[in-house]
Task: inverse folding
């Protein structure tokens, strides 16, 4: 199992899959009934058996039951597998979802690796809850655009490993990917380019809402990011008035960073920022709104801070928790701001406010766009190579010595897409490393070690093959 559950007590019982006849939903909540429907299709697919969905009084069932007094964490669950029934209990629907996830993974792996004709599962009890509350992935859809279908496919895979946040990097120098009704040229012009000269693309507001809903149904929260005030060439090419000289720039298809900036002295800039933040907030039920802040190399620090102070006010006005790359610390950040660590900076530990929560996205350990090794056909390597073991074998709470362990809210694995053009490329860079990140986020540190993890991971290659998902067949792993 990946992520390895917090506590597993094996029993000597064996569940024969054919003994299961129904799904019993004891707590009548629409989300649980939807999950029952999904599990029913899953079961049919992997076991050929047709289950009925019932609400009470059933033997030979997989039972979902909410016991809110018993569980004090939203994602905690218990999964109990006996010889002729399965019980999943949690305090919330989200907890039940995580439990179903674990059950499904056991069924798929036993389906793919079973030695006998009888599909069976080992009996026992699992008590499980996550180590970190934020277990994220980030997808850069600006350097190369990814379709709604691609994003949904990534969401399915992420949620099957219990990842619960997807951060969407929606704008950069090379493209603007989200329709803003009050500034239509952002997508009419800025949405039409990408790295290498392709045609780009963008999400309409309907597309975006569809993705948010799809993610929500899988207990993944979307974190939208508009990178400001740098990384804005696509916006600067779309609207002349956002430039200090009043002239629009050319669309950009290269991969340099740090050359663009909004004009911080113009009132139009703040009208633009407010319209964008308002429209995006209206479409995003999640708590966070990411305002970028990285690599604004051509914005003088004083201008950057002035710009961010006003932008942070706007984020607050629309009731979102601001999130930003750690460069944001020079501005006057509200205490609740979530800062995303990505690279070492000499002054990071000195200036980082002790009260701030930090999300770990270390370029050396988390970046899925770093090559695995010198022969990886895709990716960059400015932060070094990132083999599967290195990506797994570290601890977010102690990576940056000057941070307090309880400041670390979790980890997020970004996939920057300068060299990533389609879903196969994405999959090759994300898998299997993102699976290790999912385990770092979920499983307590004392339960994790590379020997055991690499053994378990060796069975997941066949799972990815079965789903026709590409992955890097790293030699470190003895793939089964
Ligand atoms: C740095 S990490 C960037 C991105 C690039 C990435 C490539 C960060 C906040 N900025 O603009 O895409 O490196 O690895």
Result:
């Amino acid at each position: 199992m990946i992520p390895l559950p917090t506590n597993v007590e094996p029993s000597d019982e064996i569940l024969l899959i054919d003994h299961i006849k129904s799904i019993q939903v004891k707590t009548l909540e629409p989300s649980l009934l939807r999950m029952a429907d999904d599990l029913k299709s899953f079961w049919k697919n992997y076991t050929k058996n047709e289950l009925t969905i019932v609400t009470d009084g059933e033997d030979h069932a997989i039972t979902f039951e909410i016991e809110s007094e018993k569980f004090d964490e939203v994602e905690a669950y218990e999964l109990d597998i006996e010889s002729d029934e399965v019980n999943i209990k949690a305090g919330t629907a989200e907890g039940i979802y995580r439990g179903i996830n674990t059950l499904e993974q056991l069924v798929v792996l036993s389906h793919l690796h079973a030695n006998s004709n009888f599909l069976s599962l080992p009996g026992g009890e699992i008590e499980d809850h996550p180590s970190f509350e934020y277990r994220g992935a980030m997808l850069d859809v600006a350097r190369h655009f990814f379709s709604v279908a691609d994003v949904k496919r990534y969401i399915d895979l992420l949620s099957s490993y219990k990842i619960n946040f997807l951060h969407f990097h929606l704008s950069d120098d090379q493209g603007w990917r989200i329709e803003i009704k009050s500034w239509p040229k952002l997508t009419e012009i800025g949405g039409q380019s990408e790295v290498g000269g392709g045609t780009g693309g963008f999400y309409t507001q309907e597309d975006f809402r569809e993705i948010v809903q799809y993610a929500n149904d899988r207990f993944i929260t979307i974190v939208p990011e508009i990178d400001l005030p740098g990384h804005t060439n696509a916006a600067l090419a779309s609207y002349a008035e956002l430039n200090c000289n009043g002239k629009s720039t050319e669309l950009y298809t290269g991969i340099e960073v740090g050359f663009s900036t909004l004009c911080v002295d113009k009132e139009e800039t703040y009208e633009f920022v407010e319209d964008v933040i308002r429209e995006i907030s209206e479409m995003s039920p999640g708590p966070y709104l990411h305002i970028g802040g990285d690599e604004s190399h051509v914005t003088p620090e004083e201008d950057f801070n002035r710009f961010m102070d006003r932008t942070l006010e706007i984020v607050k006005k629309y009731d979102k928790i601001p999130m930003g790359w750690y460069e944001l610390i020079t501005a006057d950040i509200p205490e609740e701001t979530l800062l995303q660590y990505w690279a070492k900076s000499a002054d990071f530990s000195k200036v980082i406010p002790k009260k701030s929560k930090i999300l770990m996205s270390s370029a050396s350990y988390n970046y899925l766009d770093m090559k695995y090794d010198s022969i990886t056909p895709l990716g960059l390597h400015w932060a070094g190579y990132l083999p599967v073991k290195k990506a797994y074998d570290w601890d977010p709470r102690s990576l940056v010595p000057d941070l307090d362990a309880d400041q670390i809210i979790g980890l997020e694995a970004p996939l920057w897409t300068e060299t990533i053009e389609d879903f196969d490329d994405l999959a090759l860079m994300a898998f299997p490393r993102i699976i290790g990140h999912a385990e770092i986020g979920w499983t307590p540190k004392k339960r994790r070690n590379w020997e055991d993890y690499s053994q378990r991971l060796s069975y997941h290659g066949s799972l990815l093959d079965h789903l026709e998902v590409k992955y890097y067949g790293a030699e470190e792993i003895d793939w089964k």
User: Anything to note?
Assistant: DSSP finds 14 helices and 17 strands in the chain. The first helix runs from residue 30 to 47. The chain has a mean pLDDT of 95. The longest strand covers residues 7-16.
